[in-house]
Structures are given as C-alpha cells and as structure tokens.
Amino acid sequence: MSKPKDMIQQRKRRGTEQPRADIQLSPARKNPVLRRLADAIGRETLMQALELADDQRLRTLADMLADPAYSRCTFAKLCEKASVRMTEVVDAFRRYKLDEGVVAMYQHLPEVMEDTAQDAKSRSETCGRCKGEGKIAQDDSSATDCPQCAGTGIMRVPGDADSRKLVFETAGLVGRRGLMLAQQFNIGDGGFSVESLITQGEKLIGGA
Fold it and tell me: Which of 37, 48, 100, 163 lies in disulfide reach of 119, CB 3.0 to 4.6 Å?
C-alpha cells in the first residue's frame, strides 16, 4: 500500500504533466465553438462539404447528418460520435468553398480569355499630331504630310504587351514550348525576334 507521502508526490507529478494534443479534454457536445459553427454554416451545407471529404470519418459524419435516426443529436454530439475535431470540420468546409470558387472562376474563363485577346490586338487611333487631317500647316500657308502618320491621319497602336505575351504563351508560340517550335522553322537570314513573331501572329488574334 502506498504511503501518504508517495501519493502526494504522484499527484504533484500528474499535475505538472502537459496534456497530449490528441486527447480531447472535454466532450464535443460541450464545445460552444462547434455549436456556433453549425449555426453559422447550416446543417445542409455542412453535410455537402463533409460528404466530399477524403477522410472516411468526415463522410461518416455527413451520413449521420442525413440520417433521420440522428435528427435529435446536435452537430457537436455527432462530431463526438464520429471522432471528428472542429479543425477538421473547418478544413473540410474551407476546401468545399474553395472548390466552389474555382468552378465559378472557370465559368468566366472564356470571357476573360477573349478580353485578354482583345487587349492584345492592335488598334487604330486618330493621329494626335495632325488631328486626323494628315497634313501639317507650314509658315508659308502650305501644308505637308504629317511625319507622324505619313499623311494618313491614322496611327496604329500596338496591343498591350503583357496581354500579347500571355496570348502567345497560351497558344504555345513563345516560352519553352514556343522555343522548341521556333527551332524547327527556317527563317530567312536565321534571325528571330519576339517582335517579328508578334507581327506575323497578329492575324491569329485579329490584328491589323
């Protein structure tokens, strides 16, 4: 039989031990955060998020939420039955919403890509120097062709450089894949530049 002194020392040692992180110190049903989480997200949304999780315990929790036999159980109590921690529920919900966001983003991807291609296209603008007249008045009341637009009154403005780069990278015409393609081309004098590729490639994106 242990002596009283030994029992006191054992209690002191137990009191100084740190609790293990994987031990649940209190029942889940007593966790107020879980209750607030379930109220904020909603039972139906939680079920949808959990049933798509990789962890079998989370899918089991989703089955419990859908099972009428557990309709009287709080969400916190079901977490306790399925041995699921609050952090795991939050992570499953985060992944579910992230997937929803990615799907929503992809739905707009065609329009965004079209906008990018439009930004990459060259455009025509009225010459700022001659105001579209094509002529520059001289001191002797004569007029000469505008040197800025060569007398056309119109200036060609290249498309946005970053948009052009992105379009050609997406099409595989520049970058690592584009470099491999370019090595297969025999270009006149052997010279090659991105500018020449852009000029010839404008037809692909509706440029002038």
Answer: 163
Do residues 52 and 3 lie in contact, with contact meaning Cβ atoms separated by under 8 Å? Answer: no
Q: Comparing C-alpha atoms, which of 119, 102, 154 is closest to residue 133?
A: 154
CA 184/CA 177 separation, integer angstroms: 12
pTM exceeds 0.90: no
Report phi then psi at 161, rounded to 5. -65, -45
The tally of CA atoms less than 13 A away on the side-chain side of residue 98 is: 8
Cα 38 from Cα 44, distance rounded (Å): 10
Supply 19's token pair. 């609790």
Would the pLDDT of 107 be above 90?
yes
Residues 129-184: tens digit of each pLDDT? 999 999 998 887 888 999 999 999 999 999 999 999 888 888 888 765 544 444 44
Give how far Cα 155 sits from Cα of 53, 150, 202, Å. 57, 9, 17
